[in-house]
């Protein structure tokens, strides 16, 4: 016998679980289906982000940063250490504990908000008068009927042609988080977020890391000045980069992995490494969803086709997060999940893609929101800029981390903030002020006139806003 719900959410990642909670808050009877399992076979909601993405990678980044600080920077503070070592198994166990805390937290939130949770894989069966029939394949098979269905099935890592992930030698983000010991040599294909973060983790712990990137330049999506500053810092730390690379072959064996490629000069090169992380993007996950069973439309990339409100081609079927167009970011998925739940309730949920922040949690951190100079030049829009270096910031000096700067881009006439770009300490936290400012259509002058605590890194934000009008006070 089927169980009926006002809203059935397929997927318990950031987009799905948040959509379920918000829908429940709005008075709907809600079910959420998720198939992730922990090492004991129990439910592990939170999707890629919680289980093999955002959360565990930040845990490893924190551990590896502590190790590097202890080995290279503690002496500057008068702290002496000897016989420094890293216990990779213990570091990984801590990461797993952090993941479980987040899994359990989501299950608690479901109970608190009266969301009915089903552990298994959800798939469409058919459309009927009462809504859509959804099958749940798990330890106990179930049949649900949802008047509204929100698909939030996320994405999967894209593999190199001819080099499938074995998670032992050729690794996705999942395998990169479970390397059992520090490899002497590590290759990374792709210099995006995952490649840089995972490359940084293992480089700090002692690996010789080489990053191969197909594009001719570093971090093409970021502001050019930010990308140059970050690249300079990473090279100084010991990361090796090759740009304009074309992979021609990958061979994996007991001794490691051999990557054949042509470099930017067209020369044939071979790289031998113990392990290879492949981070060349992700693809929408509709495996087992049975979209054809109800006529759900997919695009040429396999993503679910939606309009600006996340409506699919089917009535009362919605889709959010990585499985649809737009940036594959957890916080973008969350905002879409909230917006869809509110639209189902007849409200006017809203997501502004131009104020979705981007963050790379390396050291230095990289964060930005809004447009870059290159994008504005392409539009032909007149703008002005202002920047301020962390080397002139008192708090950054006290931290011992003065790499980077804050940069503002504002409209040449109205002074409206069009973009803010940061490379440096705690950029992930500092960017929030810029997001708020842009949502309220603030001008650079507005930020320049706000009192910021002293000493704080946020003063660099104020000074960069002042620099738009060429009147910095501390540089």
From TrEMBL:
Cofactor binding note = Binds 1 FAD per subunit.
Q: What is its EC number?
A: 1.8.1.4
| Catalytic function, reaction form | N(6)-[(R)-dihydrolipoyl]-L-lysyl-[protein] + NAD(+) = N(6)-[(R)-lipoyl]-L-lysyl-[protein] + NADH + H(+)
**What InterPro entries would the database entry show?**
Class-I_Pyr_Nuc-Dis_Oxidored, FAD/NAD-bd_sf, FAD/NAD-binding_dom, FAD/NAD-linked_Rdtase_dimer_sf, Lipoamide_DH, Pyr_nuc-diS_OxRdtase, Pyr_nucl-diS_OxRdtase_dimer
Per the record, the domain of life is Bacteria
Q: Where is the Pyridine nucleotide-disulphide oxidoreductase dimerisation domain?
A: 356-465
Q: From the Swiss-Prot or TrEMBL record, what is one GO molecular function term?
A: dihydrolipoyl dehydrogenase (NADH) activity
Q: Which Gene3D superfamilies match?
A: 3.30.390.30, FAD/NAD(P)-binding domain (3.50.50.60)
Query: Which residue numbers delimit the FAD/NAD(P)-binding domain?
Result: 5-337
Instruction: Provide the alphabetized UniProt keywords.
Output: Cytoplasm, FAD, Flavoprotein, NAD, Oxidoreductase, Redox-active center
Location relative to the cell = Cytoplasm
Q: Which cofactor does it need?
A: FAD
Position of the signal peptide: none
Q: Which family does it belong to?
A: Belongs to the class-I pyridine nucleotide-disulfide oxidoreductase family.
Misc remark for this entry? The active site is a redox-active disulfide bond.
**How is this protein named in the record?**
Dihydrolipoyl dehydrogenase
């Amino acid at each position: 016998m089927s169980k009926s719900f006002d809203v059935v959410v397929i997927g318990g990642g950031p987009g799905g679980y948040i959509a379920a909670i918000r829908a429940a808050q709005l008075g709907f009877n809600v079910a959420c289906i998720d198939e992730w399992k922990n090492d004991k076979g129990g439910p592990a909601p939170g999707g890629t982000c919680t289980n093999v993405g955002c959360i565990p990678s930040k845990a490893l980044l924190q551990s590896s940063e502590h190790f590097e600080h202890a080995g290279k920077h503690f002496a500057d503070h008068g702290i002496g250490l000897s016989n420094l070592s890293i216990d990779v198994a213990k570091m990984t166990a801590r990461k797993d504990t952090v993941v479980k805390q987040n899994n359990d937290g989501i299950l608690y939130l479901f109970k608190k908000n009266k969301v009915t949770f089903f552990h298994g894989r959800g798939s469409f069966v058919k459309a009927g008068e009462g809504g859509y029939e959804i099958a749940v394949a798990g330890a106990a098979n179930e049949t649900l009927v949802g008047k509204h269905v929100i698909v939030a099935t996320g994405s999967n890592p894209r593999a190199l042609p001819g080099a499938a992930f074995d998670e032992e030698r050729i690794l996705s983000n999942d395998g990169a988080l479970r390397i059992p010991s520090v490899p002497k040599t590590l290759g990374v294909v792709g210099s995006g977020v995952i490649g840089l973060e995972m490359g940084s983790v293992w480089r700090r712990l002692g690996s010789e890391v080489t990053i191969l990137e197909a594009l001719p330049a570093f971090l093409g999506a970021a502001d050019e000045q930010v990308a140059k500053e970050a690249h300079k810092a990473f090279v100084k730390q010991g990361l090796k980069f090759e740009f304009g690379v074309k992979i021609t072959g990958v061979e994996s064996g007991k001794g490691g992995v051999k990557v054949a490629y042509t470099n930017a000069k067209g020369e044939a090169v071979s790289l031998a490494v113990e392990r290879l992380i492949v981070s060349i993007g992700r693809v929408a996950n509709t495996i087992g969803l049975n979209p054809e069973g109800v006529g759900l439309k997919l695009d040429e990339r396999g993503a679910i086709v939606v309009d600006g409100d996340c409506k699919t081609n089917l009535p009362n079927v919605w889709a959010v997060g990585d499985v649809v167009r737009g940036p594959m970011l957890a916080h973008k998925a969350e905002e879409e999940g909230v917006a869809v739940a509110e639209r189902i309730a007849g409200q006017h949920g809203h997501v502004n893609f131009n104020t979705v922040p981007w963050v790379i949690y390396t050291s230095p951190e990289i964060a930005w929101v809004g447009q870059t100079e290159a994008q504005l030049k392409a539009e032909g829009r007149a703008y002005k800029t202002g920047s301020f270096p962390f080397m002139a910031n008192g708090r950054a000096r006290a931290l011992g981390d003065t790499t980077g700067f804050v940069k503002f881009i504002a409209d040449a006439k109205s002074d409206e903030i069009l973009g803010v770009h940061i490379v440096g300490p705690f950029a992930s936290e500092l960017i929030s002020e810029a997001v708020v400012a842009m949502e309220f259509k603030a001008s650079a002058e507005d930020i320049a006139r706000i009192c910021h605590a002293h000493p704080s890194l946020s003063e660099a934000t104020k000074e960069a806003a002042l620099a738009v009008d060429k009147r910095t006070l501390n540089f």
